[in-house]
Specification:
The complex is a heterodimer. Chain A is of the alpha/beta class. In chain A, about 40% of the residues lie in helices and about 25% in strands. The longest helix of chain A is centred in the middle third of the chain and has 21 residues. In chain B, helix 9 packs parallel to helix 11. Classes of the chains: A alpha/beta, B mainly alpha. At the A-B interface, helix 2, helix 3 and helix 4 of A face helix 5, helix 6 and helix 7 of B.
Chain lengths: ~280, ~300
């Protein structure tokens, strides 16, 4: 557990009018590790992501990203697009947000547009197909092919992304995020709606990303089988507060976490059969 | 038959102009979902910059026509590009997340502003341009002595328009900039997360649209030999009709729509009444909005949930 620090979130608070969505949350994510954020619905997990990726400006708090090379970025002070472009944080969404009317390959190329823009001399070299641009494009294509291969969509590279099956779109979204060559990958419920086989493939893909590409992964997930199997570190949020953190096993046995998921002590005043229903429901 | 061919040639020439302007409407609609009503006036400014450049070249004694035309085109594109950028920066950017009506009204304000600004700087009178390209090829002559003529000017217009449109289509389809624009069009927030500088992409869209309108302005000036500060209004609305007819948001749609509107207008004027040719165009707008709201090539607008 002595992996170098990648992301430090300090006193993150996000208020929307009177509603406190995230309340003084601090945690750290280490490089080359998978850090999972779990918690009941409405706990503020996605809000944390939105603050990280510049969708929201946090009300209070400091979000420091430290690259393995040593460069440090204060994410809360950066414009949205620079978080992806300069700090290299990539994310996916709970509901899939591919570019549905672009081909699968183009989705992966968009993610690499910054280096392509530079190589194309902001369009003109690209328009005339100069060698500088052609080489850059060839390299971008190589990276795209590599990821297509990884996610098993090589044969369907030229189809519209919107026509892919749900699980394929999920994987494509992760591949697209990886094509930005991030140092931190934030995944918002990547296993939602996947069947057990797809879920297992996803685990494999995430472990591959962590081990082979040596980047940090931040993961919001409801599927406990995923969380317990692949995460190195777990942070539990409830009602916008951090209630627990630690290794998967320690979190699973933490009474505070169990209470957050299954209800307060008072609930035991309910008739026993209702209590049982609640437990099964959860 | 000869009359028909002649009208078709004239119609396609006019349609090329509308097509060039319509692309600006359709691109801006595609990327930020608003109708930029100041676009017609951007086109007018393109015409004015062309005529001013022509005068200045005359002062320096540059009268070789191809060089003069290239200079006029470049200057017109540069200046209107600047205007297009400024209009977006001042009038629309702050309203990007406002309700849809707000930028629309801002656009109408921008349009009125641009008209008055040109009127103040250049005066309200027509500016004439001496014909700099004349002559043409006689294609055929009918038994009644009616000659079908394809002017050199018309050839230049069609060739220029084709070259610009092909170059532009390639840019959208092939270059990273075009890919970036299409990405912003489909999901602006996601594009931003992937590191796309959305503000800059939108600015570039306005500049590109304005540059195309500048080409249209130059062509208009050469073809009609006259320009005034109000010309952008009607031409702009007709080009907007062309964009709607083709399916707003679709680039090939704008080109096809432009050609169709040009041909319809000229045929109506030629066969029915030239006084009511504008009515013909706006009837098309009404009919398309009622019966074919997605246009000829448009995609049905599915509300995102």
């Amino acid at each position: 557990m002595t992996a170098p620090l990648l992301l430090r979130i300090e006193h993150l608070t996000m208020r929307f009018g009177g509603l406190v969505a995230v309340d003084d949350v601090s945690f750290e994510a280490a490089d080359r590790q998978i850090t999972a954020i779990i918690g009941p619905n409405g706990a503020g997990k996605t809000t944390v992501f939105n603050c990280l990726t510049g969708f929201y400006k946090p009300t209070i708090g400091m979000l420091t990203l430290r690259r393995p090379g040593g460069a440090t970025f204060l994410l809360e002070r950066m414009d949205g697009y620079r978080i992806g472009q300069v700090a290299r944080v990539a994310r996916t969404f709970q509901n899939i947000r591919l570019f549905p009317r672009m081909s699968v390959l183009e989705n992966l190329m968009v993610a690499q547009h910054n280096k392509l823009m530079r190589a194309s001399g902001y369009t003109f070299f690209g328009l005339f197909g100069l060698p500088v641009y052609r080489h850059a494009e060839a390299r971008a294509l190589d990276l795209a092919r590599y990821w297509l291969d990884r996610i098993g969509l090589t044969a369907r590279a030229d189809e519209e992304a919107g026509n892919m099956a749900y699980g394929e779109q999920r994987r494509l979204e992760i591949a697209r995020a990886m094509c930005t060559e991030p140092v931190l990958l934030c995944l918002d419920e990547p296993a939602a709606g996947l069947n057990p086989r797809e879920s297992a493939e996803l685990n494999e893909l995430l472990l591959f990303i962590r081990d082979e590409h040596k980047i940090g992964v931040l993961l919001i997930e409801h599927d406990m089988s995923v969380v317990m199997k692949i995460s190195d570190h777990v942070v539990v949020l409830d009602y916008g507060r951090k209630i627990s953190a630690g290794s998967p096993t320690s979190v699973r046995n933490d009474p505070v976490v169990i209470r957050a998921y299954l209800g307060e002590e008072e609930d035991e005043a309910l008739p026993p059969e209702v209590e049982t229903d609640l437990k099964f429901g959860a | 038959m000869e009359y028909f061919v002649q009208q078709l040639i004239n119609g396609l020439t006019l349609g090329a102009v509308y097509g060039l302007i319509a692309i600006g409407y359709t691109m801006v609609y595609g990327i930020i979902g608003m109708i930029n009503f100041a676009h017609g006036d951007i086109f007018m400014i393109g015409g004015f910059v062309s005529i001013i450049t022509f005068m200045v070249l005359g002062v320096f004694g540059i009268t070789w026509v191809p060089l003069a035309l290239v200079c006029m085109l470049v200057m017109a594109m540069a200046f209107t590009g600047l205007h297009g950028w400024a209009v977006e920066r001042i009038g629309y950017r702050a309203l990007r997340n406002a309700p849809r009506l707000a930028p629309l009204i801002s656009a109408i304000g921008m349009s009125i502003f641009l008209q008055n600004y040109v009127q103040l700087l250049q005066g309200a009178r027509n500016k004439p341009l001496p014909p700099i390209i004349s002559g043409g090829i006689e294609l055929m002559t009918s038994s009644e002595g009616f000659t079908v003529k394809l002017g050199y000017m018309q050839i230049i217009i069609m060739v220029t328009t084709t070259v610009i449109m092909v170059g532009f289509t390639l840019m959208i389809a092939r270059t990273p900039l075009g890919r970036q624009q299409r990405a912003c069009e489909q999901d602006m927030k996601m594009a931003r997360l992937l590191g796309v500088n959305v503000d800059r992409t939108i600015s570039l869209t306005f500049i590109m649209g304005a540059a195309l309108a500048a080409a249209a302005g130059l062509i208009w000036l050469l073809y009609y030999g006259i320009i005034d500060f109000y010309v952008g209004f009607l031409a702009g609305i007709k080009a907007f009709t062309a964009a709607v007819l083709g399916g707003i948001g679709s680039l090939p749609g704008a080109m096809v729509g432009g050609l169709l509107i040009g041909v319809i207008e000229v045929f109506y004027a030629g066969y029915f009444s030239s006084a009511y040719k504008d009515v013909a165009v706006f009837m098309i707008l009404v009919l398309v909005l009622i019966f074919l709201p997605t246009g000829l090539i448009g995609r049905p607008d599915i509300e995102k949930v």
